[in-house]
Amino acid sequence: AQKVTQAQTEISVVEKEDVTLDCVYETRDTTYYLFWYKQPPSGELVFLIRRNSFDEQNEISGRYSWNFQKSTSSFNFTITASQVVDSAVYFCALRSGASGSARQLTFGSGTQLTVLP
Amino acid sequence: EAGVTQFPSHSVIEKGQTVTLRCDPISGHDNLYWYRRVMGKEIKFLLHFVKESKQDESGMPNNRFLAERTGGTYSTLKVQPAELEDSGVYFCASSEEGVLLNSPLHFGNGTRLTVT
Asked: What is the per-residue pLDDT across B60-116, written as a single tens digit (0 to 9) for each?
């Protein structure tokens, strides 16, 4: 069975602080894909990043960076110098490539990030 | 390019009534998915279409839910009769997918359903 755990339900930071959102996943498959989505107050789910299980390179994109570690089954997301517009619910999601329901995304429960001015 | 469109954005109905949600995927995307988030919990998979065919409907909670995708374009999700526990946000997503299944799903804004 697949599972994604986002232990942080809510985080509040002051603008310009750095913040890391944690994501821990479980899967028996050796091939899998990890995603982060952002849900701003407007409601849509916005795709942020994808990472394949065979690619452990970390990635930086502007103020966003992702740390993928297979040894700890974690795929953490860091926002540097946070801004008020970063306030949203952030979801981590997992998709495996071997099971019968491979095309399903398994989501974590989400982390509500509030950036205060 | 237009994104995934869902209609209505909000729906408030009474227990026992029927509601139909509509999703228009991104043009050219053969894969269409329905998900829902109930009471702040995880976003859960409902079903997956490839063109007009149901590929996986293992997430459909019961037979009060009926999804269709006639012609392989837009999709509808009907709840009949609605129950209180059906309240939540229903998301539709579409994707192009290759062999590696690494294509991201593109989600719509969701339909917030409230059953009173």
From this structure: 999 999 999 988 899 999 999 999 999 999 999 998 876 556 778 899 999 999 999
**What is the distance between the alpha carbons of residues B24 and B106, in angstroms, rounded to a whole number?**
12
Q: Which residues of B touch A46 (CB under 8 A)?
A: 107
B100 touching A, CB under 8 A? yes
Q: Do B101 and A33 touch (CB under 8 A)?
A: yes
Residue type at B72 in one-letter notation? G
Residue of A nearest to B6 (CA): A44
The tokens describing B78, both together, are: 């009907």
A30, A18 Cβ separation under 8 angstroms: no
Beta bridge partners of A94: A34, A106
Give B10's contacts in chain A (Cβ within 8 Å). Answer: none
**Structure-token pair, residue A93:** 């999601």
Distances in Å between the Cα of B20 and the Cα atoms of A71, B9, B63, B93 are 45, 12, 14, 17
What distance in Å separates the CA atoms of residue B50 and residue B29, rounded to the nearest whole number? 9
pLDDT tens for each residue of B8-30: 999 999 999 999 999 999 998 98
